[in-house]
Design a protein that fits this description.
Blueprint (H helix, E strand, L loop, with lengths): L2 E7 L7 H9 E6 L13 E6 L2 E6 L23 H13 L5 H8 L10 H16 L4 E4 L6 H6 L3 E3 L27 H4 L7 H8 L3 H7 L3
Parallel strand pairs: 1-2, 1-6, 2-5
Antiparallel strand pairs: 3-4
């Protein structure tokens, strides 16, 4: 059941299962578009699991002081053929998963189309995933940067920006998320690994993914 408040999140690359539980449990999701880019976050990386275990996919960015750049101005580097590398890694990890063939035609074109800006790439991709999962949610962009004072005035906005983070000590406490288990491709080899990129759940569980997301909301 959706809560009536609004959750505020940053835009991430193929976000985690935890991220998507926020989309299904809030009536409105505000996406921050006036922040500055932060290094070492999920804005340009995600985690999947392959034959050799946990694997990080990281989007290369054009050199410069990205830490001080407005997120809308952060450009993707085109020098490493990263899209082909990422897609090959995804195929290697999930090519034999139960539902890879079911969603491949929706996702593969993104890894062949050139994008200049990170924000636009992440935005188009997350909307594709939302469609694949048949999630009914309202995504809106912020109209200004929401600082502490603005959030105090907007009582119904739950700020969870930077709460979902690759580094454990940087993660925000989240009593509303308890990852539900599902069958994973390499579970016998590596055991169950929770809170991976949503791709893991999508390719492994297909139409059951939404139910598993619901089961992960406390």
């Amino acid at each position: 059941m959706k809560t009536k408040d609004t959750i505020l999140l940053e835009l991430q690359y193929l976000p985690s299962i935890q991220y998507f539980t926020k989309l299904i449990s809030h009536e409105i999701t505000l996406i921050e578009q006036y922040e500055n880019y932060l290094k070492g976050t999920y804005r340009n990386r995600c985690h999947i699991v392959g034959a050799n275990g946990l694997q990080r996919l990281s989007i290369p960015l054009e050199k410069g002081k990205n830490e001080k750049q407005p997120i809308r101005e952060v450009k993707i580097s085109d020098h490493e053929n990263w899209q082909a590398q990422h897609w090959n890694s995804i195929k290697s990890a999930y090519g034999k998963s139960p539902y890879f063939e079911y969603y491949v035609d929706e996702l593969e074109p993104f890894f062949k189309k050139k994008y200049e800006f990170l924000f636009e790439w992440n935005w188009d991709l997350i909307n594709c995933i939302i469609d694949c999962l048949s999630i009914e949610c309202e995504l809106k962009w912020t109209t200004e940067y929401l600082g502490k004072q603005a959030l105090e005035e907007e009582k119904n906005i739950f700020d969870f920006r930077n709460g979902i983070h690759p580094k454990i000590h940087r993660q925000k406490e989240d009593p509303h998320f308890k990852p539900a288990k599902y069958a994973q491709v390499f579970q016998e080899k590596h055991g169950f690994i929770s809170n991976l990129s949503i791709l893991d759940l999508l390719f492994c569980s297909g139409p059951e993914s939404y139910r598993i997301l619901e089961g992960s909301v406390v």
